Amino acid sequence: MAAKKLSYLREGLYVGATKKMGRGVFTEEAIPAGTLIELSPVIVMNGKNRVDLDKTLLHDYIFEWGKKLDQCAMALGLVSVYNHSYKANCQYGMYFNQQAISIITVRDIEAGEELFINYNGTWDDEKKVWFDAK
């Protein structure tokens, strides 16, 4: 039986400097809406590990994980470098059984544009996040 592919990164994506947020993920070419741009495996950790990670800088890079959100996960690939926007141009999806996260565009993206996800889970969710996001 062939193993399922649990990683994918679209060509032309890169990490670059941003004006306000340090680093972010950008694209060299236009990408149509509904395009899978990344599928990355995650490292799943238990609630005790989450408490420990919350005391470190990694707190800003982990995802709540599991159906009860009683675990956390560190995404590999570029997933943890996407910046937050309340009107993101990408959506992330969590696949608990496969231990993976996908990033899919929600609108057409222009070449050179930064790619954003909404840390609340839904691309246009305006609920306040834990940091000052303008």
Describe this structure in words.
- The protein is mostly beta strands.
- Strands 1, 4, 5, 6, 8 and 9 form a six-stranded antiparallel beta sheet that branches.
- Strand 5 and strand 6 form a beta hairpin.
- The longest helix has 7 residues.
- The protein is globular, with a radius of gyration of 15 Å.
Question: SSE layout and pairings?
Answer:
Elements: E1 8-9, E2 13-17, E3 23-27, E4 36-45, H1 47-53, E5 62-65, E6 71-75, E7 83-84, E8 90-95, E9 100-105, E10 114-117
Parallel strand pairs: 7-10
Antiparallel strand pairs: 1-4, 2-3, 3-10, 4-6, 4-9, 5-6, 8-9
**Over all CA atoms, what is the radius of gyration?**
15 Å
Strand content: 35-45%
Distance between the termini: 48 Å
- The helix-and-strand class reads mainly beta
Q: Strand tally, please? A: 10
Shape: globular
What profile does the largest beta sheet have? Answer: 6 strands, antiparallel
Total helices: the number is: 1
Return residue spans where pLDDT drops below 50 for at least 5 consecutive residues: none
The arrangement of helices and strands along the chain is EEEEHEEEEEE
Q: Return the average pLDDT rounded to an integer.
A: 88
Give the proportion of residues in helices.
Answer: under 10%
Label this structure with key terms.
134 residues; mainly beta; 4-stranded mixed β-sheet; 1 helix; 5% helix; globular
Put the structure in a nutshell:
The protein is mainly β and 134 residues long.
